[in-house]
Amino acid sequence: MKSVALRFNFEFNRVYRYGKFATGRYLSVHVLKRREGTTQSGYKVEPSLRRTGFCANKKELGAVGRNRARRLMRESYRLLEDKLPEGYDYVFTLKAKGGIPDFHELSTDMGKCLARLDLLEGSFL
RNA sequence: CGGGCAGGCCGAGACAAUCGCGGGCGCCUUGUAAGCGAAAGCUUGGCGCAUGAGGAAAGUCCGGGCUCCAUAGGACAGGGUGCCGGGCAGUUCCCGGUGAAGGCAACUUUAAGGAAAGUGCAACAGAAAAGAAAACCGCCCCACAAGGGUAAGGAUGAAAAGGCGAGGUAAGAGCUCACCGGCGAUGUGGAGACAUAUCGGCCUUGUAAACCCCACCCGGAGCAACGUCGUGGAGAGGAGUUACCGUGGUCCGCGGGCCUCAGGAGACGGCUUGAACAUUAUAGAGAUAUAUUGUCUAGAUAGAUGAUUGUCAUAUACAGAACCCGGCUUACCGGUCUGCACGGAAA
RNA sequence: GGAGACGUAUCGAAGUGGUCAUAACGGGGCGCACUCGAAAUGCGUUUGCCGGGCAACUGGCACGAGAGUUCGAAUCUCUCCGUCUCCG
Predict the structure, then answer these.
(1) Where in chain A are the domains?
(2) Distance between CA A107 and CA A119 in Å, rounded?
(3) What's the Å distance between residue A74 CA and nucleotide B128 C1'?
(4) C-alpha A22: how far from chain center
(5) CATH class, A3-116 region
(6) For residue range A66-106, what is the model confidence (pLDDT) as tens digits?
(7) Do A77 and A114 touch, CB atoms closer than 8 A?
């Protein structure tokens, strides 16, 4: 099943408040298992769907840097997607300080964070 | 050759391969990969095709289009602009010229109307700071003082009542004269700003990015505008109709003044073909205009351009559309082209 | 995305063309008094940066930054920078 984006502020806040999290060197990961019958814009969300949000600070990086950071995170997520369990909401946030990291370092960092939350099927690397 | 001045163009470094993203079109699809539907068709999916951020997308400083409020109307208040002519849909923009300032020059800068329409302000210092004024030192008259004359000199100040020279005088003074500057009148040139010549009286500080005067311009709000559909839950029943509400400074004026809905989750529309871009020709000094032919060039909605490998150049700046245009301003690694003046060398 | 407002000592702020901002006034810091000790109160003092001087003291630059108008700008005008508020 495909992934879909988180949209509203309250959805992000729900993940931040009630979900588990892990922090790596470049980013932090928040994860929450959705309850049955969660709705979005009045429609029921498919229980097998993964929902994602990618965040970066515009003040530090500028609009171009923010987009660049989100692209790298999205690409990293795409490579790991098949190993992740369904029915969860994921939020990935780039740390405010430190600029934009190299893709390989970011990708490894994300893998480590998810492994620490016992979400990855099989062994990483 | 050197250091300058002015203007233009390019700018996610380029190419190839494999995976991936956005919207568009086509096919699977006139009975099908899955679902809904009576059907037309719609949603999702797969495959293919072409396409997909900027010169500033930025700041939001101006000007519009568009939408709603009246087809945006009058008065006052308030605000903007300000040499002249032209361009433009329009502007605080652009082009050409005039004056002034800077530079050897190419060239650059310029909110540049009015200070004899009126009012205000000009601290400190100074005798005096704007009156047809004033005597602190000095100078002169007088034997000295008292008194008077005197704005040449000193002193103060950002600024001291046209400048400088000669005559003149007791000493002085536009008191008189030449030149220069300013003002006014007349003539000439120019479309005009203005330039220039002659004559006149002998002159009246600066500040209008202080109030103001004159001329011209400006109704308000913004795509989170606005329109359509509207879940849960809560809400509404009254009869004021010369009230009240709207037009976001005030008054006038204008519109609404009702009937079953209004409405704050959310969804959809608005959303891209336009004062568009490119080519050639003509007119013009130029901005630009006209004609011709051709092109369709992002429309996302938590927000689409990434990853890996290889080769070449070399470590690649500022930086991301959000209703759309035209300007201005600001940020920027570099590359490249054109013209001009100055200095040197050679011929 | 759009519409506004505000930047002055360490903090909150006044000052809106002229005697150096005595950087007013309040808070904070420091010192003294009161107290067994503290709080509160009262009095005094300190409060930017770069220099000069052995010292008492003294010169220049500073009102977010840079230009302009003016004799003179924290104040008026323009362009940037930063912070905050409102509209969904």
Answers:
(1) 3-116
(2) 16
(3) 83
(4) 11
(5) alpha beta
(6) 888 888 888 888 888 888 888 888 899 888 776 778 888 88
(7) no
Going from the C-alpha of A97 to that of each of A75, A101, A111, the distances in angstroms are 21, 11, 21
ipTM: 0.80
Say how far apart CA A49 and CA A51 lie, in whole Å: 6
**Closest-lying nucleotide for A9 based on CA to C1':** B302
Give distance CA A14 / C1' B306 (Å).
29
Name the nt closest to A63 by C-alpha to C1'. B320
pLDDT at residue A1 greater than cutoff 50: no
The CA–C1' separation of A75 and B248, in angstroms, is 50
